[in-house]
Fold this protein.
Amino acid sequence: MRYSQLLIPTLREDPAEAEVASHRLMMRSGMIRKVAAGIYSTLPLGQRVIQKTKQIIREEMNRAGGQEVFLPFIQPAELWEESGRWEVYGKEMLRLRDRGDRQFCLGPTHEEVITDLVRSTVNSYRQLPINLYQIHIKFRDEIRPRFGMMRAREFIMKDAYSFDIDENGAEESYRKMYEAYSRIFSRLGLTFRAVEADTGPIGGNFSHEFMVLADTGEDIIVTCTGCDYAANTEKAEIAKPVVSDADPAKFQALKRVETPDMRTIEEVAGFLNVLPEDLIKTLVFTSSQGPVVALVRGDHDINEVKLRNYLKCDSLELAGEEVIEKITGAPRGFAGPIGMKNVRIIADYGLQGCCNMVTGGNERDVHVVNVNFGRDVSVDEFADLRSAQAGDSCPRCNKLLSTTRGIEVGHIFKLGTKYSKAMNCSYLDREGKAQPMIMGCYGIGVGRTVAAAIEQSHDENGIIFPEPIAPFSVIVVPVNTNDAVQMEIAVNLYNGLAAKGVDVLLDDRDERPGSKFKDADLIGVPLRVTVGKNAVEKKYLDIKERKGGEAQQVAIDDAVAVIERRLKQPEV
RNA sequence: CGGGGAGUAGCGCAGCCUGGUUAGCGCGCAUGCUUCGGGAGCAUGAGGCCGCGGGUUCGAAUCCCGCCUUCCCGACCA
């Protein structure tokens, strides 16, 4: 394509609204423009990248046996009432009415619609298993959309749904998707990791997130330095420490100290001149099972997901001021486990064996020091309640865990029968008996994947696209478009490459070379061919890789072959 | 929803505190000439509901009140 005819409105300066690299660069390179918060138009350059990404996803989904469908974006309330999610979903779902006052929503996800489709068209075990997928938009009215395409309200998603006759089949379907996802992200040229994830309220036995590794990622993932264990921090287990109870001989006398207005761990530790790890953090929660008190060491973080899973309760949240006062008799900041009655207390494993600790005194402006388990506090339950940190031990091999940041681009779930039971999606088995189908669902955020690719691969000059999703593979830059010889060489090369099926862009704009080089860098085209004086006088072209390195001089006649080889083996 | 910024030309910003000619600068855009291997030079020109509504005032981009939009942090999130 000719640059002069394309709409690529690059910006010289960073747009004020964009903070993170991918957002900034997608705006600057003219890939996207904002229409409203979390809602974007995709321009030709962005569309090319999106299409290439979609195509790779599509090919791998098809290879894995998926069948492409297209489900409605506007969905009737009845389906959601059937699954019970019309009430549950909350404000994230944008609801609307048609002229007949019937209720609809903009589809935030498609379990209901697909389940409805399958129940009405699939009746026999002979038709199973089946995997249906689509690639189109979703709308979730996020509380706070941010970072451009990374967390938009309207976004493109590939979502697939599998239906099986039994658990084994469902696990096989899941495994196929796991493999397909691994192939997809590899083909896209991304550095990624599949990690174990919490299944959340959706339930099911297992779930994996596919994370693109990037320092700016919103998620923290835990990986083992010794084995291949990797998990989201919400899920990451910590090996149960092997410790014996503290020696009572070391216990010092319990003492009450005044700590005026010292509420946080840091304040108390600083005030008493002790370390955060010498404190016991006492957290009061309200849950569907009533109030619960959780204890973790001062330098550890409570993991609400772990606590919720341990308690097996539906809801769990940090208690408000009122409940805290009722349970502890003191305002927030002075809670401690001593003397607490009629409330379930669970302590993290990290507290086992600790002695002479500091806790709140359950009284305004008072803490207690030299607190010891057994003597002062009796806790019946110890459990893994805290979030893993770098330096903790791996639950599988006991080696050290480390943490890294990632961007969640894919998530696969084994759903089980939640929707098939609620919506009566069943098949007849060999005995003619109706059985609920076992479902799985599998999502990939397409726009987020592109954003993640940019986040992972850019420099101060712009995007460095992996070749498979680059908007163009090669850009041919004639230095002076008014020079007929240069233009002829450039056009011939352009035609030669295009004839070989290479995605090539000819920068035929009558601009100064500096501007054209800057734009080429900004939009991230992997290979740049410069046609200048050297081409006219010495019959060679300069081929430069976007990711860096010296330009290579190639004879004009060899250029097409050399470029083809480079694209196949970008490492050369 | 809580906290903190910001809305002035397509983009980036100044002006506002201390009200007063015709609202300015850089980039971009248009035209012409000169240039042409990393965002050129000169000249001419187009482009503004100063976010919206109300108020104060002889007079409001500027002061006051209300609203809207948007960005960041937090809470939230298959």
User: Anything to note?
Assistant: The radius of gyration of chain A is 29 Å.
